[in-house]
Amino acid sequence: MRHLDEYRDPALILQQAEAIRAACTRRWTLMEVCGGQTHAILRHGLDDLLADTVELLHGPGCPVCVTPTETLDQAVLLTRRREVMLCTFGDMLRVPGALGDLNAARAAGGDVRVIYSPLDAVALAREHPQREVVLLAVGFETTAPAAAITVLQAEALGLSNLSLLVSHSLVPPAMEALLTDPAHRIQGFLAAGHVCTVEGAAAYQAIAEHFRVPIVVTGFEPVDLLAGIRACVEQLERDEARVENRYDRAARDDGNAAARDAVSRVFEPVEREWRGMGRLPASGLGLRPAYAGFDAVARFGIASPATGADGPCIAGEVLRGLRRPTDCPAFGRECTPNTPLGAPMVSSEGACAAYLHYRGGA
Amino acid sequence: MTTEVVRLAHGGGGRLQAKLLDEVILPALGSPARGAPDAAVLDAPDGRLALTTDSFVVRPLFFPGGDIGRLAVHGTVNDLAMAGARPLWLTLGLILEEGLPLEDLRRILASVSAAAEECGVQVVAGDTKVVEAGRGDGAYLNTSGVGIVPEGVRIAPDAIRPGDVLLASGDLGRHGVAILAAREGLGLDPPIPSDSAPVAGAVAALLAADVPVHALRDPTRGGTVAALQELADASGCRLVLDDAAIPVREDVRGACEILGLDPLHSASEGRFLAAVPEPAAEHALSVLRSRPETAGAVAIGQAEAGEPAVIRRLATGVERRVILPAGEQLPRIC
Asked: From CA A14, how far away is CA B160, in angstroms rounded?
């Protein structure tokens, strides 16, 4: 933790916040794309520290939040098959779909296993050759390599009882979609450092140029985040719009070639439904035809149930940075972590959960 | 050689059950011989009786720093201590799953016995049931405890007053992380040991030193946040934690960072939180620090007048409210 503590040093935090205040001639509106960053901002109170200088909008970068209802419903349908063992990350268990959530599916007798790494699914498939192990593969660029390696390992081991329900999403197309919305208020982006450790900062170049918006690759600790915010407002003050890497201790400009290679061997870009944002072209990953045998939807002939609406929940607008969690009439009243109406209240990385968790109720 | 295991007939009330009791359970616990009345009849000393019960369903049964047997004794003894009671007697209910190796049962019972002796309590009654294979996780334990609250002692969550100092008896959140790491095979090296331990002695020492303790709470399930939230709700006070003072071991913090969990939501099984009037806080800390099991005691915050809530005051001066997680904490996606 020694290395982490350096990036949480209160004196450094206050110093950076002061430097940002000094650099700003006006108040700027920035969006952090990643849910992990939203969580860190709220946890460390950076929103309060910068309240008079920078407005932080919270973007759609919570993988749990943007996973469409359809995928969750398919997962619930799979748990109703006796032969299926569904593997998922813990924070997917409470996301409500039209057919309830996976916790309820487990309580109803479904075999739902919480895993820590997609590769755990390979181990489970080997341990339980008589079962059909299905990996609910969600997440952004960061988790896709592990899902790809899961497929490659299963192939190498000749496992015929493992398949994937794939709902991987890609961040840059979502950023483009946000910027093409005429109502958007984004003046600069903090890009997620861990996405860049895979994809490389270069992935954002075209967006920065085309939309004239500064994009700063930023880490997850308070000092990292403030350094990213500072670089972003300094660009804005100078009327610049370029990609800047403020997380170079982890993210290189060219990313991780081995991880990208695994992803591109197994997956290809496909159109993907984003909860709250609709269908975005080339914004998701699907299995390449060569790996179609690993597609759980095809293997089990799972129908795509009709997508239910999110009800009074304004999750879509929250995910697009158009409204704040506290603007929602249900926030902290009908909608709480115990009774979530929408995904951003479920995931620990969701903006609504972060607001309720760190700033209190309605 | 075949391993001896628990069989359904061990719970059937017949000869095999008698054998299990006579040869395995009763000798391990040093309890009165079978044939005693259906209920233990006990001579109670003066004072008010404290009574508590708790069930233990932990997986795995054996984990770094403890096992279900020690946990069952410590959990119940500590619950009594949180009322200021001196623990005296325990009951032990065993629900065993068919197929449990008898060797494991012997280990668990030896732990119960050793922990009871360490805590100065006697196991005076019990019950054994066997359930079919697949209907249990090896063994479930239930312990009920009886203790005596000395005259003049009144420890209750609603006794907290604005100005009271909040103390933690040692590092927090360790047991929950230790169990999670052991259950999920996280392979932490070295493994994180549970903090499972009795705290009744430390509480007795505080009372013996005339520390006017207002409230006590052991941060078990739900962790420190759940315990403090209960104290806040009961007392109507705003409990403000000094974030930098909260004691969490480095390995526990590290594991929580990796898993996306908060150590303050993770259970402790050998720790307690205390609210004492400010003038008595230093004295209380020196009493606790003089004992090995509470050597790491520190002040972590203070009660204030205001809306009941648990607040974390960060070193930057920003205040963050902390709330209870919805159900079990689950590891995050990335």
From this structure: 34
